[in-house]
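Good day; I would like, with your permission, to put a structural problem before you. What I wish to show you is a protein chain and, alongside it, a tokenised description of its three-dimensional fold. Thank you for your consideration; the sequence and its tokens are set out here:
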Amino acid sequence: MHRNSEALWFDCLAVPFAVTYSVTLYRGVVLEPQRALSRVLYAFGRTVVSQLPLNLPEACAEHAGVVYHRQYLSKDAQMALSAQVCDIIAAAPLFQPVMPRTGKPFSVTMTNCGPLGWVSDKAGYRYQPLHPVTGEPWPPFPPALLALWRAVAGYDGMPEACLINIYGATARMGSHQDRDEADFAAPVVSVSLGDAATFHVGGLKRGDAKSRFRLESGDVLVLGGASRLAFHGIDKVHVGTSPIPLGAALADCSRVNLTLRRVNRASTSSCGVAP
């Protein structure tokens, strides 16, 4: 499903990396280059001294705990996951979340899979075991998502929710923190499918400086450590850039983002997921 993503840790030596490996550039940030990349990047201490490969999010290196796996999923894996998203939507139809108190609708529609699902309505943000419209339990995780979590999360417990956000051509996601969970030691793991999007990540305050880079279909991003509560969001969807068809249930969709989250502390889960 993915290439070797073992990190090569740069500290004080100038060392080349193999193009099939993830590379830690700065402050624990892992960037995985394109397979086709032929040039060699060298780092000396904490300074990158050669030109970065095209489209690598070098700005992301300012944010400790942001781990970026470029093209982690092959095209076949992306299409398989897209088909599974369509199955999830058939069982748990898309709904329109709204802002607490004001009732202003989000620009995305969404659904969930796993024991818990995230919802937002006038009463507030929360996780719950039942679909807010149908009253039915959420569909189970596709096995590929659980395998992905085991591979990249670095956390003992398993995820309990997968938010599935559906972006149209003009949809965006305002800068926000993911803080409705009980254990911030667990990272947030997201997968992009479909059209590319401009992603931003900042600091622990809304007004902190932000880094921006493109997330492409098949990319996996992990927010953990010092960036677990970083403000982040989606500025723009780049329509027409998807390398894969998204399936009939997503015919009017430009981009799909799947976000895996651990809700409860691993030792206190009561949601039917093994810690």
User: Anything to note?
Assistant: The radius of gyration is 18 Å.
